[in-house]
Design brief:
70 residues, mainly alpha, globular
Length: 70
Amino acid sequence: MDKILLKKLAKRIKELRKINNYTQDDLAHLAQIGRSTLGNIETAQNDITFSKLNSIAKAFNMSLAEFIDF
């Protein structure tokens, strides 16, 4: 994935997490992904799979389309 896009996505996840008062542990649990994986996604260090994107969107009670509308 493009590094600029990864950084935008990382920023979006972190902003939504803070708006929802979730810790990384909270969001990782809700999205059923590892906390360290989420940390790496939030710092744009890891590429992200479609399934993980969808899991994170669901954790925010958003459709994938809403989630990536940034």
